[in-house]
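Chain A, query sequence.
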Amino acid sequence: MENNIRFVAENLGCDVLWDANERKVTIIYPKS
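Chain A, predicted structure.
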């Protein structure tokens, strides 16, 4: 699942951060 989210988000121009300790994905959308 994480890889699918990363693929889609990065193709939309977003940054994807993975926090292994909290097992949390953060998606940062670019400002328009």
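The mean pLDDT is 88. Residues 2-11 form the longest helix (10 residues).
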